Amino acid sequence: MTNTPTQRMKLAVLTSGGDSAGMNAVVRAVVKAGILKGCETWVVREGYEGLVRGNIEGGRAEKVSLPPHQPVNIKDESFLHNLRFGDGELLRDGTSDLPSGRSLKGRYIVRVGWDDVRGWFGVGGTLIGTARSVAFRTPEGRLTAAFNLIKEGIDALCVCGGDGSLTGADVFRAEWPSLVKQLLQQGKITEEQAKTYAHLKIVGLVGSIDNDMSMTDMTIGAPTALHRICESIDNIESTAASHSRAFVVEVMGRHCGWLALMAGVSSGADFIFIPERPPKADSWADEMCEMIQKHRAMGKRKTIVIVAEGAQDKDLKPIRADDIKDVLSDKLGLDTRVTTLGHTQRGGRPCAYDRIMPTLQGVEAVDALLEATPDTPSYMIGIQENKITRVPLVDAVAMTHSVAKAIGEKDFEKAMSLRDPEFIEALEGFNATSQIASEPRLPHHARMRIAIMHVGAPAGGMNAATRTAVRYCIRQGHKPFAVHNGFVGLLDDNVHEMTWLGVDSWMTRGGSELGTNRKLPDIDLGSVASKFQQWNFHALLMIGGFEAFSSLFILDQARKNYPAFNIPIVHLPATLSNNVPLTEFSLGSDTSLNALVDACDAIKQSASASRNRVFIVETQGGKCGYLATMGALAASKLRMIDITGACIVYTPEIGINLDKLRDDVKYLKKRYAMDVKGKSEGRLVLKSEEASTVYSNKTITDIFKEEGGKLFDSRSASLGHTLQGGIPSPLDRARAVRLALKCMAFIEEKHSILLKQSQKPRHAGPDMAAVITIQGSSVQWVPAQEMLASADLVNRRGLNEPWKKMTHLVEALVARPQILGER
Ligand code: ATP
Q: Record's superkingdom (predicted)?
């Protein structure tokens, strides 16, 4: 289907297969982005089953004639009315009658408007329903589905589901020309319709808790499922340690071990069973028992084994949780319990990642559909590291199937190679932190004394990264040294050698177990250098924020005067502000975003009590607006009485002035005036603590209160240190493991280069003082000196950070430009 300039694209979105957190965020983003880009937006209820059932005669969606191919003009009240198809209540009640008097009975393909999807992205599952459709698997079912789409004039389809659903989408796409031909031959559609709908525009978004789709790092809903699993395991751990028990935890994943693997990595489990990599030994029981015995011999009081529901041995014989329990009880004499997490893993409230990423992916999906031509492939929207990607749907489906095929053929190496690199690195991370080598892996001359230090403010994931580095060191034969309290602690000789067991429970601990300090090494460079010499450090790993970056730069510059600094020095960014230049991700920022989302969800209670309140919520972040901006994309929406995803964001980068405040008041007044009478909602403003020295939270709250008159009231909340979060999020823990391992590999590589130098003292080049960064789709090492070009040293943040674009998206998703009449 190719739209002529006078046709608006009619875009329908459906959710299919097992539900997952984040599906609602996709639907919301697709509908909103679709409307903003001039499309007519529809939803298909109950997945493919809804496509097959279609709309029975007499129950069709209300038709509203809209000017063709016009950008949205929310200024126009009548247009806004047209957008509000269900008064914001549509679809919430399944098939029951709507307050507006319209009924959804017999209607599966439903026109929706802006306010229909209001408040959706904080809700788990899928509000438009999902199903596993037997009918759609048949050619007849797909023929009916094609007819129903053409009948409603829909020319673009966005499918959010797992690998099965996207396989279905791929089949539908491939068959489409023959389906249109059959419909024409049967006289169900006209020649003109056959011509107009000759090509199906289709895009896939991967909504699945299993993270089982190839060619994307992450599927929508998988991070939330991982949150639920880790919460359960964190709770089990205390009882396991108290009674010195073993727990076998069964998690979902019939064909994909991602959840089991990441839960194993994030919780510091003792052993995992995943379908892609069965134990190599002839007896999985012996391999597991040997490992667990070693852990117990080290002094561990608790044992956690995680098993994916599809786990199997190398002969494809299933390994069940009860089998594992019997082995642990009988062979090791451990008091063992089984916990099957079952459907609790499906989600509930989406975590921050499952609000932000599906929103960005939904927007990208609409762009992909608008840009589609008969010659372009149908895309699947994925994620690589921090980048939203488009990959050909047909390739992603084929690669996903080849993983299952490889497992079926017992070609486990191939199965692993077909998983994304993060999966493989996570497995290496798990092995490095759980396995105890009988002999160090490196020869004597390659072994190092490695200092590990936390610099700056505490952040979630610092301890997980330290635990990983310590365990890796011990496995390799290095000696890891904790430097407590940063450079101040070093000067006080507050240093001790770390042990394997000493860091055992650090995975789940928030804050900084080492103690951290903001002081830079230039408090006394000479003494710092002499301590490096005294302790004979061969490398330094600094985990921290902007101060760690500054320290790295200072030490690099000081090498010419102090030979003790001629060693590999690395900085692993960890700060909730995410203000380290160049990197799009710092450890701790995901934990903080989740703390922010939780806080906003709690604020909703006040909003339910008094609907038309504007909450001005102040976040931490220093002179960097990352947390406020990304929080605005993720912040809570309520189900019945909504707080919007934040409608206004104040950041230090943009600042606050009178003109902006005047516009903001104007926006709020217009928006509240548009609300349906009696259904006004709470709205959220997110403000970085240092957005302005003049316009404080109180001042802005007072201005809004005064200006809001009868339309709205205002209140303020300051989240302060609560945003450091308690227990680090699973994503922060998993990334801590992965990045810390890369840091250790970097240190070993650079050390081996130094060892080859004949001159004394050895000379460390500028590349030996570097920061590990995530930039777009790749992990990159950037030398300290190169970082400088991207750093704003005065304001302690990066220049040109990609997240700044999100400010516009926040405004777009609340139609601010349209409401203010700027467009
Ligand atoms: P989850 O990962 O949660 O299991 P999924 O999308 O993989 O989600 P499935 O039950 O495998 O879930 O697929 C969902 C629906 O997609 C099926 O009920 C069916 O309607 C459709 N579908 C799956 N495979 C095909 C196929 N080969 N041809 C046509 N339709 C298919």
A: Eukaryota
Residue of minimum CA distance from atom 12 in ligand 1: 17
Report the nearest-CA residue for atom 16 of ligand 1. Answer: 165
Mean pLDDT across 574-598: 91
Q: What's the confidence (pLDDT) of residue 249?
A: 96
In the structure encoding, which two tokens stand for residue 211, read together? 């993270």
Instruction: Tell me the best of 15, 16, 49 to mutate to test the pocket of ligand 1, counting ligand atoms within 8 Å of each CB and taking the most.
Output: 16
> Which of 48, 12, 244, 237 is closest to 129 using CA atoms?
48
Ligand 1 atom with least separation from CA of 48? 20
What digits encode the pLDDT tens for the residues 516-540? 999 999 999 999 999 999 999 999 9
Give the pLDDT band (50/70/90) at residue 59: very low
Q: Output the residue whose Cα is nearest ligand 1's atom 28.
A: 168
Q: What is the pLDDT of residue 66?
A: 33
Task: Cite the active site residues.
Answer: 210
Structure tokens at 607: 């909003």
Q: Are 362 and 33 in contact (CB under 8 A)?
A: yes
Asked whether the predicted pLDDT for residue 247 surpasses 60, the reply is: yes
Ligand 1 close to Cβ of residue 135 (< 6 A):
no
Computed over its alpha carbons, how large is the radius of gyration of the chain? 28
Q: Give the predicted TM-score (pTM) of the model.
A: 0.88
Cis peptide before 761 (omega within 30 of 0): yes
Distance 132 CA to ligand 1 centre (A): 6
Q: Average of pLDDT values for 511-519?
A: 94
* Nearest of 549, 431, 505, 589 to residue 788 by alpha carbon: 549
17 Cβ closer than 6 Å to some ligand 1 atom: yes
Query: Taking CA 86 as the corner, what is the angle to CA 83 and CA 90, rounded to the nearest 5 degrees?
Result: 125
Which amino acid residue places its CA nearest to atom 24 of ligand 1? 164
Tell me the average pLDDT across 122-128. 86
Helices (H) and strands (E) in the chain, counts: 26, 26
Task: Determine if ligand 1 sits within 6 Å of the CB of residue 347.
Answer: no
Does the CB atom of residue 49 touch ligand 1 within 6 A? no
Question: 593 alpha carbon to ligand 1 midpoint, in Å?
Answer: 33
Question: Ligand 1: does its nearest atom lie under 6 Å from the Cβ of 85?
Answer: no
pLDDT at 67 over 90: no
How far apart (Å, rounded) are the C-alpha atoms in residues 50 and 401? 26
Closest atom of ligand 1 to CA, residue 254: 4
ipTM, 2 dp:
0.97
Instruction: Please state, in angstroms and rounded to a whole number, the distance separating the CA atoms of residues 370 and 173.
Output: 16
Q: Compute the distance from residue 516 Cα to the ligand 1 centre, in Å.
A: 50
Which has the closest alpha carbon to 329: 263, 247, 391? 247
- Distance between CA atoms of residues 630 and 351, nearest Å: 13
Q: Does 125 sit in the ligand 1 pocket, CB within 6 Å?
A: no
Q: Which of 415, 498, 422, 409 is nearest to 453 (CA)?
A: 498
The tens digit of pLDDT for each residue in 425-442 reads 999 999 999 988 888 999
Phi, psi of 668, deg, nearest 5: -65, -40
Q: Is the CB of 636 under 6 A from ligand 1?
A: no
Q: Which of 410-424, 449-463, 631-645 has the lowest mean pLDDT?
A: 631-645
Find the mean pLDDT for residues 31-48. Answer: 90
Q: Is pLDDT at 572 greater than 70 in this prediction? A: yes
